[in-house]
Amino acid sequence: MRLRDLTAQAYEVPLRSLWETARGKSDIAYNVRATAVLEDGTTGYAEVSPRSYVTGETQESVLLAIAQNGAHLCGEDFLGLRAFVEVTRRLMPDRYSARALVEMAFFDALARSWGIPKFRLLGGAKREVRSDLSIPIATPEQTAQIAREAFAQGFRHLKIKVGGLGVEDEAQRVLAVREAAPGVILRVDANQAFDPEAAVVFIEWLIASGVPVECFEQPVSRTDLEGLAYVTQRSPVPVIADEAAVTPEDVLRLIRAEAAHGVNVKLAKSGITGSLDIIAIARAAGWKLMMGCMLESSMGIGMALHLACGTGAFQYIDLDSHHLVGEAKEPEEFQQIGEVLRLKF
Ligand SMILES: [Mg+2]
Fold first, then answer.
1. How far apart are CA 173 and CA 316, in angstroms?
2. Averaged in consecutive runs of 10 residues, what is the pLDDT profile of the chain (345 residues)?
3. Ligand 1 centroid – CA 218 distance (Å)
4. Is 266 designated active site?
5. In angstroms, what is the span from residue 48 Cα to ligand 1's centroid?
6. Radius of gyration, alpha carbons of the chain
7. Which of the residues 118, 266, 269, 288 is marked catalytic?
8. Strand order in the sheet with 340-343
9. What is this structure's pTM?
10. Among 25, 126, 159, 161, which one carries the catalytic annotation?
């Protein structure tokens, strides 16, 4: 199958409220959308939300990479997605999100041309999943208010961003969520903010206090493999690597170092085939898998949902950024019913 045209456009998404994590604040998501037109005229679409602290890429660098390389991907007869991805790797070796974007647009076009829903091409394990909702760094009062609203909307899993304040203040915020949303399962994401000792004190204190924390994401710097292993050896709950795990090679390195118990898979990091490779490695190692997102609107979340449903591989689903985006239209490919995300296929 040949591509006739491949273009990318800046897609800026205003967020409903300020989004703050230990990595910074934003009120706009600087995303990129791509359009891939096959030789038979079928058009595919995709969206990526590049985050410089994860892959080193920005909206500008993704747009530039595709402006420079898009034409080189047109005209060649590709047998399928893996053949296409090999060429993107050669053309853009260190542009993970840019590669993911063109791969997803090509895959969307292929699926439409063949008339087969993407989740079926990816294995067809299930049609729906249950996602958590993420709570940004905020005051304990604001944190509790968001938790109450999420509980009322039907969410029974919440992911709390921590690390902006000290260990004690962050523990108070997590307690505030437990009070506001009783019985809810909590996931905690420090976005690299703690040092290894503080991370262990924090998670041990939460568990000793009876807080139902299910997993602890990226407690320390992505470059501190030893620190991550230190927390992993001591944490009473599974440690999940996110920023430290961009490529399948990263995941293998983490597994060898016993530096986590699982990995957060995101399309902006590893695309579709890279994510499939990570899933295979993690499953073989008995590691846990989270399907995560950056700040995508419903188009990007839809692709991640196809991967999550197609593979059925994920213990934790964190597909929620479309809630942050004030989109006027209902998502094209899925419905949200409480915490359930259901594909419309
Ligand atoms: Mg994370």
1. 22
2. 97 92 91 98 98 95 97 95 97 97 98 98 98 94 95 97 88 94 96 96 95 97 98 98 98 98 98 98 98 97 98 98 87 96 96
3. 6
4. yes
5. 16
6. 19
7. 266
8. 128-130, 340-343, 334-337
9. 0.96
10. 161
